[in-house]
Specification:
about 0% strand, binds hydroxy diiron-OXO moiety, mainly alpha, Ferritin, elongated
């Protein structure tokens, strides 16, 4: 594995772990304002992000690279509302993570590393889902505003989310 790719993958592992840390912080905030269903949704999101990181870690190891874990930046801790939390989550996915994944694809193409490019396609597709999940919830919360009964209804819906490990091809993540 080329050094430039190994470094970029290590940066992405850090970014996925940061995502987990950020969503854990959002979970704690939602818990503190008595929205346990939304907190549960974020808790599952944390597990998703850890699975994304694990997939990348296994790919680096498989290709003979070395994973070097770095410090994880401290996340934001306070928000004004649940809607603001999901607005931040959507911005994080669409403006930060998707951009980073696309840059990795650009690097794979530049370095003519076809295996890396193929591996990344799962992450490209996953980002479409990540953006859709957060933007759908954000639109819903914007519509609801301060209407408590509707907010409680959405909270109850989100309490049912359970973690199912994503199946990342080429890794044991989500595998039997
Ligand atoms: Fe790993 O997709 Fe969200 O951040």
């Amino acid at each position: 594995m080329k050094a430039s790719i190994e470094k970029a993958l290590n940066d992405q592992i850090n970014a996925e772990l940061y995502s987990a840390y950020l969503y854990k912080s959002m979970e704690m905030y939602l818990h503190s304002i008595d929205l346990p269903g939304m907190a549960n949704w974020m808790k599952v999101q944390v597990q998703e992000e850890l699975a994304h990181a694990e997939g990348l870690i296994q790919f680096v190891n498989l290709r003979g690279g070395r994973v070097m874990l770095a410090a994880i930046e401290g996340p934001k801790k306070e928000w004004k509302s649940a809607a603001e939390v999901f607005a931040d989550a959507y911005d994080h996915e669409s403006k930060v993570v998707t951009v980073k994944i696309h840059k990795l694809v650009d690097l794979a193409i530049k370095e003519k590393d076809h295996a890396f490019n193929q591996f990344l396609q799962w992450y490209v597709a996953e980002q479409v889902e990540e953006e859709d999940n957060t933007s759908t919830l954000l639109r819903k919360l914007k519509k609801i505003g301060d209407h408590m009964p509707s907010l409680m209804q959405v909270d109850a819906q989100l309490a049912t989310r359970v973690f199912t490990a994503p199946v990342i091809p080429g890794t044991t993540v989500g595998g039997p």
